[in-house]
UniProtKB/TrEMBL annotation:
Keywords: NADP, Oxidoreductase, Pantothenate biosynthesis
Cited function: Catalyzes the NADPH-dependent reduction of ketopantoate into pantoic acid.
Pfam families per record: ApbA, ApbA_C
Name of this protein: 2-dehydropantoate 2-reductase
Pathway: Cofactor biosynthesis; (R)-pantothenate biosynthesis; (R)-pantoate from 3-methyl-2-oxobutanoate: step 2/2
Length: 292
Protein backbone atom coordinates (compact mmCIF):
# COMPACT_ATOMS: atom_id res chain seq x y z
CA UNK A 1 0.00 0.00 0.00
CA UNK A 2 1.33 3.52 -0.75
CA UNK A 3 2.39 5.65 2.27
CA UNK A 4 -0.51 7.81 3.47
CA UNK A 5 0.34 11.50 3.78
CA UNK A 6 -0.60 12.45 7.38
CA UNK A 7 -3.36 15.10 7.53
CA UNK A 8 -2.95 18.73 8.58
CA UNK A 9 -5.38 19.57 11.38
CA UNK A 10 -6.96 22.85 12.31
CA UNK A 11 -7.29 22.85 16.10
CA UNK A 12 -10.08 24.72 17.87
CA UNK A 13 -9.21 24.92 21.56
CA UNK A 14 -5.49 24.71 22.31
CA UNK A 15 -6.16 24.33 26.02
CA UNK A 16 -5.06 21.44 28.20
CA UNK A 17 -6.38 18.46 26.29
CA UNK A 18 -6.06 20.12 22.87
CA UNK A 19 -2.36 20.83 23.46
CA UNK A 20 -1.70 17.23 24.54
CA UNK A 21 -3.50 16.00 21.39
CA UNK A 22 -1.44 18.42 19.29
CA UNK A 23 1.78 16.99 20.78
CA UNK A 24 0.72 13.43 19.86
CA UNK A 25 -0.38 14.51 16.36
CA UNK A 26 2.94 16.28 15.76
CA UNK A 27 4.86 13.22 16.98
CA UNK A 28 2.95 11.16 14.39
CA UNK A 29 3.97 13.59 11.62
CA UNK A 30 0.57 15.32 11.34
CA UNK A 31 0.38 19.08 10.87
CA UNK A 32 -1.45 21.26 13.43
CA UNK A 33 -2.52 24.90 13.14
CA UNK A 34 -4.46 26.51 15.98
CA UNK A 35 -7.48 28.73 15.29
CA UNK A 36 -7.80 31.73 17.59
CA UNK A 37 -10.53 34.37 17.63
CA UNK A 38 -7.98 37.16 17.09
CA UNK A 39 -4.60 37.18 15.36
CA UNK A 40 -1.88 36.13 17.78
CA UNK A 41 1.74 35.03 17.95
CA UNK A 42 2.46 31.31 17.64
CA UNK A 43 1.68 29.36 20.79
CA UNK A 44 4.82 28.51 22.73
CA UNK A 45 3.88 26.17 25.52
CA UNK A 46 5.26 23.40 27.74
CA UNK A 47 3.84 20.00 28.57
CA UNK A 48 4.97 18.47 31.86
CA UNK A 49 4.55 14.70 32.03
CA UNK A 50 3.88 13.15 35.43
CA UNK A 51 5.46 9.79 34.62
CA UNK A 52 9.05 10.97 34.63
CA UNK A 53 9.14 11.52 30.85
CA UNK A 54 10.06 15.11 31.65
CA UNK A 55 8.89 18.19 29.78
CA UNK A 56 8.23 18.99 26.14
CA UNK A 57 8.22 22.45 24.52
CA UNK A 58 5.63 22.80 21.79
CA UNK A 59 5.36 25.68 19.33
CA UNK A 60 2.16 25.79 17.28
CA UNK A 61 1.27 28.20 14.45
CA UNK A 62 -1.86 30.28 15.01
CA UNK A 63 -4.36 31.67 12.55
CA UNK A 64 -7.83 33.22 12.58
CA UNK A 65 -11.02 31.93 10.90
CA UNK A 66 -10.85 34.78 8.33
CA UNK A 67 -7.24 33.99 7.34
CA UNK A 68 -7.80 30.41 6.18
CA UNK A 69 -7.95 30.48 2.38
CA UNK A 70 -9.15 26.94 1.62
CA UNK A 71 -12.07 25.04 3.19
CA UNK A 72 -10.89 23.07 6.22
CA UNK A 73 -10.57 19.33 5.60
CA UNK A 74 -9.42 18.15 9.05
CA UNK A 75 -10.76 19.82 12.20
CA UNK A 76 -10.04 18.89 15.82
CA UNK A 77 -12.48 20.42 18.31
CA UNK A 78 -11.12 20.53 21.87
CA UNK A 79 -12.57 23.70 23.35
CA UNK A 80 -15.03 23.53 26.27
CA UNK A 81 -18.54 22.71 25.07
CA UNK A 82 -20.23 26.09 25.79
CA UNK A 83 -17.84 27.83 23.35
CA UNK A 84 -18.18 25.33 20.52
CA UNK A 85 -20.82 27.11 18.46
CA UNK A 86 -19.00 30.47 18.67
CA UNK A 87 -15.72 28.78 17.71
CA UNK A 88 -16.92 26.49 14.91
CA UNK A 89 -19.65 28.49 13.15
CA UNK A 90 -17.23 31.08 11.62
CA UNK A 91 -15.14 28.28 10.05
CA UNK A 92 -15.50 27.29 6.40
CA UNK A 93 -15.46 23.49 6.39
CA UNK A 94 -15.11 21.31 3.30
CA UNK A 95 -18.34 19.38 2.58
CA UNK A 96 -16.52 16.12 3.32
CA UNK A 97 -14.39 17.40 6.21
CA UNK A 98 -13.23 14.99 8.91
CA UNK A 99 -13.99 16.39 12.37
CA UNK A 100 -12.71 14.88 15.61
CA UNK A 101 -14.64 16.01 18.71
CA UNK A 102 -12.40 15.70 21.79
CA UNK A 103 -14.74 17.04 24.47
CA UNK A 104 -16.79 15.81 27.39
CA UNK A 105 -20.57 15.73 27.05
CA UNK A 106 -22.62 15.04 23.93
CA UNK A 107 -24.21 17.09 21.17
CA UNK A 108 -22.08 20.26 21.12
CA UNK A 109 -21.51 19.96 17.34
CA UNK A 110 -25.14 19.18 16.46
CA UNK A 111 -26.23 21.21 13.40
CA UNK A 112 -22.81 22.88 13.06
CA UNK A 113 -21.21 20.59 10.44
CA UNK A 114 -21.81 20.21 6.69
CA UNK A 115 -24.04 17.24 5.76
CA UNK A 116 -21.14 15.26 4.22
CA UNK A 117 -18.74 15.72 7.15
CA UNK A 118 -17.35 12.69 8.96
CA UNK A 119 -17.72 13.25 12.72
CA UNK A 120 -15.38 11.10 14.81
CA UNK A 121 -16.05 11.22 18.55
CA UNK A 122 -13.13 10.93 20.96
CA UNK A 123 -13.50 9.90 24.60
CA UNK A 124 -10.48 10.23 26.83
CA UNK A 125 -9.80 9.32 30.43
CA UNK A 126 -6.48 11.20 30.38
CA UNK A 127 -6.15 14.26 32.59
CA UNK A 128 -4.31 17.54 32.03
CA UNK A 129 -4.36 20.66 34.20
CA UNK A 130 -2.29 23.76 34.83
CA UNK A 131 -2.08 27.10 33.04
CA UNK A 132 -2.16 28.07 29.33
CA UNK A 133 1.66 28.15 29.37
CA UNK A 134 2.27 24.98 31.41
CA UNK A 135 0.09 21.92 30.84
CA UNK A 136 0.61 19.29 33.55
CA UNK A 137 -0.19 15.88 32.09
CA UNK A 138 -1.48 14.18 35.23
CA UNK A 139 -2.48 10.90 33.59
CA UNK A 140 -2.21 9.39 30.12
CA UNK A 141 -5.00 6.82 30.18
CA UNK A 142 -7.20 5.23 27.55
CA UNK A 143 -8.58 7.28 24.65
CA UNK A 144 -11.10 5.90 22.18
CA UNK A 145 -11.92 7.28 18.71
CA UNK A 146 -14.90 6.04 16.72
CA UNK A 147 -17.87 6.89 14.54
CA UNK A 148 -19.47 3.49 14.10
CA UNK A 149 -17.39 2.79 10.96
CA UNK A 150 -13.88 1.57 10.20
CA UNK A 151 -10.78 3.55 11.23
CA UNK A 152 -9.46 6.06 8.67
CA UNK A 153 -6.06 5.31 7.08
CA UNK A 154 -4.17 7.84 9.21
CA UNK A 155 -5.37 6.31 12.51
CA UNK A 156 -2.88 3.44 12.78
CA UNK A 157 0.12 5.80 12.49
CA UNK A 158 -1.38 8.15 15.06
CA UNK A 159 -2.01 5.31 17.52
CA UNK A 160 1.72 4.53 17.50
CA UNK A 161 2.39 7.97 19.03
CA UNK A 162 -0.74 8.54 21.18
CA UNK A 163 -0.45 6.31 24.28
CA UNK A 164 -3.41 3.94 24.84
CA UNK A 165 -5.33 5.20 21.78
CA UNK A 166 -7.82 2.71 20.34
CA UNK A 167 -10.36 2.75 17.54
CA UNK A 168 -13.68 1.37 18.76
CA UNK A 169 -16.84 0.28 17.01
CA UNK A 170 -18.70 1.03 20.26
CA UNK A 171 -17.91 4.72 20.77
CA UNK A 172 -21.48 5.51 21.87
CA UNK A 173 -21.15 3.13 24.82
CA UNK A 174 -17.84 4.79 25.86
CA UNK A 175 -19.46 8.22 25.54
CA UNK A 176 -22.45 7.20 27.61
CA UNK A 177 -20.26 5.63 30.33
CA UNK A 178 -18.24 8.83 30.60
CA UNK A 179 -21.39 10.95 30.45
CA UNK A 180 -22.97 9.14 33.41
CA UNK A 181 -19.80 9.58 35.51
CA UNK A 182 -19.57 13.27 34.56
CA UNK A 183 -23.30 13.80 35.20
CA UNK A 184 -23.04 12.31 38.69
CA UNK A 185 -19.69 13.69 39.84
CA UNK A 186 -19.32 17.12 38.21
CA UNK A 187 -22.44 19.05 39.26
CA UNK A 188 -22.48 17.75 42.85
CA UNK A 189 -18.79 18.50 43.44
CA UNK A 190 -19.30 21.93 41.83
CA UNK A 191 -22.40 22.85 43.80
CA UNK A 192 -21.01 21.63 47.15
CA UNK A 193 -17.43 22.74 46.43
CA UNK A 194 -15.94 19.39 47.42
CA UNK A 195 -13.33 17.02 45.93
CA UNK A 196 -14.65 13.98 44.07
CA UNK A 197 -14.06 11.55 46.97
CA UNK A 198 -16.49 13.44 49.21
CA UNK A 199 -19.34 11.93 47.18
CA UNK A 200 -18.38 8.56 48.70
CA UNK A 201 -17.77 9.86 52.23
CA UNK A 202 -20.90 11.96 52.73
CA UNK A 203 -24.09 9.89 52.98
CA UNK A 204 -26.40 12.62 51.66
CA UNK A 205 -24.14 13.41 48.70
CA UNK A 206 -23.73 9.72 47.95
CA UNK A 207 -27.52 9.26 47.88
CA UNK A 208 -27.84 12.20 45.42
CA UNK A 209 -25.06 10.80 43.26
CA UNK A 210 -26.81 7.41 43.21
CA UNK A 211 -30.12 9.11 42.28
CA UNK A 212 -28.50 10.95 39.33
CA UNK A 213 -26.98 7.68 38.12
CA UNK A 214 -30.33 5.86 38.47
CA UNK A 215 -32.13 8.54 36.43
CA UNK A 216 -29.40 8.50 33.77
CA UNK A 217 -29.46 4.69 33.55
CA UNK A 218 -33.28 4.75 33.15
CA UNK A 219 -33.06 7.27 30.35
CA UNK A 220 -30.22 5.47 28.54
CA UNK A 221 -32.14 2.19 28.79
CA UNK A 222 -35.15 3.94 27.22
CA UNK A 223 -32.84 5.09 24.39
CA UNK A 224 -31.27 1.65 23.96
CA UNK A 225 -32.70 -1.44 25.63
CA UNK A 226 -29.22 -3.06 25.48
CA UNK A 227 -27.77 -0.44 27.86
CA UNK A 228 -26.73 -2.42 30.99
CA UNK A 229 -28.36 0.17 33.28
CA UNK A 230 -26.14 -0.53 36.30
CA UNK A 231 -23.58 2.28 36.23
CA UNK A 232 -23.34 3.05 39.96
CA UNK A 233 -20.36 0.78 40.75
CA UNK A 234 -18.30 2.18 37.87
CA UNK A 235 -19.18 5.78 38.81
CA UNK A 236 -18.13 5.04 42.41
CA UNK A 237 -14.87 3.59 41.07
CA UNK A 238 -14.20 6.85 39.18
CA UNK A 239 -14.92 8.90 42.33
CA UNK A 240 -12.58 6.61 44.32
CA UNK A 241 -9.77 6.74 41.74
CA UNK A 242 -10.00 10.56 41.57
CA UNK A 243 -10.89 11.10 45.26
CA UNK A 244 -8.51 14.01 45.85
CA UNK A 245 -9.26 15.74 42.51
CA UNK A 246 -11.23 18.87 41.77
CA UNK A 247 -13.68 18.10 38.96
CA UNK A 248 -13.53 20.37 35.90
CA UNK A 249 -17.00 21.71 36.71
CA UNK A 250 -16.00 22.58 40.28
CA UNK A 251 -12.92 24.35 38.86
CA UNK A 252 -15.12 26.26 36.37
CA UNK A 253 -17.48 27.38 39.17
CA UNK A 254 -14.56 28.39 41.38
CA UNK A 255 -13.18 30.68 38.66
CA UNK A 256 -16.62 31.99 37.64
CA UNK A 257 -16.53 30.32 34.18
CA UNK A 258 -19.47 28.86 32.27
CA UNK A 259 -19.75 25.13 32.99
CA UNK A 260 -20.31 22.22 30.59
CA UNK A 261 -23.62 21.33 32.32
CA UNK A 262 -25.68 21.78 29.10
CA UNK A 263 -23.71 19.08 27.25
CA UNK A 264 -23.81 16.68 30.23
CA UNK A 265 -26.92 16.71 32.48
CA UNK A 266 -28.60 19.11 30.01
CA UNK A 267 -28.22 16.51 27.23
CA UNK A 268 -29.89 13.92 29.49
CA UNK A 269 -32.80 16.33 30.15
CA UNK A 270 -33.22 17.00 26.42
CA UNK A 271 -33.38 13.29 25.64
CA UNK A 272 -35.78 12.80 28.58
CA UNK A 273 -38.09 15.55 27.26
CA UNK A 274 -38.12 13.87 23.84
CA UNK A 275 -38.99 10.46 25.27
CA UNK A 276 -41.25 11.59 28.14
CA UNK A 277 -38.80 10.36 30.82
CA UNK A 278 -38.59 12.60 33.89
CA UNK A 279 -35.17 13.23 35.54
CA UNK A 280 -35.99 15.41 38.58
CA UNK A 281 -32.58 15.34 40.32
CA UNK A 282 -30.74 16.01 37.07
CA UNK A 283 -33.15 18.92 36.46
CA UNK A 284 -32.48 20.23 39.96
CA UNK A 285 -28.68 20.29 39.53
CA UNK A 286 -29.01 21.88 36.08
CA UNK A 287 -31.25 24.62 37.48
CA UNK A 288 -28.91 25.23 40.42
CA UNK A 289 -25.94 25.65 38.05
CA UNK A 290 -27.90 27.75 35.51
CA UNK A 291 -28.96 30.12 38.30
CA UNK A 292 -25.39 30.82 39.41
N1 LIG B 1 -8.36 18.72 30.74
C1 LIG B 1 -8.64 17.43 30.85
O1 LIG B 1 -7.97 16.68 31.55
C2 LIG B 1 -9.82 16.82 30.09
C3 LIG B 1 -10.00 15.44 30.15
C4 LIG B 1 -11.07 14.86 29.43
C5 LIG B 1 -11.91 15.67 28.69
N2 LIG B 1 -11.72 17.02 28.67
C6 LIG B 1 -12.66 17.82 27.88
O2 LIG B 1 -11.92 18.48 26.85
C7 LIG B 1 -12.54 19.74 26.55
C8 LIG B 1 -11.49 20.84 26.70
O3 LIG B 1 -11.10 20.87 28.07
P1 LIG B 1 -9.74 21.55 28.55
O4 LIG B 1 -9.54 21.16 29.95
O5 LIG B 1 -8.66 21.29 27.56
O6 LIG B 1 -10.19 23.10 28.47
P2 LIG B 1 -9.30 24.41 28.49
O7 LIG B 1 -7.92 24.11 28.98
O8 LIG B 1 -10.13 25.46 29.13
O9 LIG B 1 -9.14 24.72 26.95
C9 LIG B 1 -10.15 25.21 26.16
C10 LIG B 1 -9.49 26.02 25.06
O10 LIG B 1 -10.47 26.45 24.15
C11 LIG B 1 -10.16 27.76 23.75
N3 LIG B 1 -11.32 28.45 23.18
C12 LIG B 1 -12.46 28.84 23.81
N4 LIG B 1 -13.28 29.49 22.94
C13 LIG B 1 -12.64 29.49 21.74
C14 LIG B 1 -12.95 30.03 20.45
N5 LIG B 1 -14.12 30.66 20.22
N6 LIG B 1 -12.06 29.86 19.44
C15 LIG B 1 -10.90 29.20 19.65
N7 LIG B 1 -10.53 28.70 20.87
C16 LIG B 1 -11.39 28.84 21.89
C17 LIG B 1 -9.64 28.39 25.01
O11 LIG B 1 -8.89 29.51 24.69
P3 LIG B 1 -8.89 30.77 25.72
O12 LIG B 1 -8.21 30.27 26.96
O13 LIG B 1 -8.14 31.76 24.94
O14 LIG B 1 -10.35 31.12 25.97
C18 LIG B 1 -8.78 27.27 25.57
O15 LIG B 1 -7.48 27.31 25.03
C19 LIG B 1 -13.72 19.86 27.53
O16 LIG B 1 -14.91 19.40 26.92
C20 LIG B 1 -13.33 18.94 28.67
O17 LIG B 1 -14.44 18.46 29.40
C21 LIG B 1 -10.69 17.62 29.34
Amino acid sequence: MPEVQPPHWVLVGAGHIGTLAAAYLRAAGHGVTVIRRAAAAPIDTTLIFADGRGTQRLRLPVTTPESIAKPITYLLVACKTPYTEAAVSPLRLADTATVVRLQNGIGSLDNLLPGGARLIDAVTTSAVKGTPERHEVVAENATWFGDGGAAPQWFEGLARHWPHLEWTGAIRQRQWQKLVANAAINPLTALHDVPNGQLLEDETLHARMAAIVREADNLLTALDSDWPGDSLASVEAVARATAGNTSSMRADVQRGATTEIDAINGWLLEQGARLGVDLPINREVCSALWER
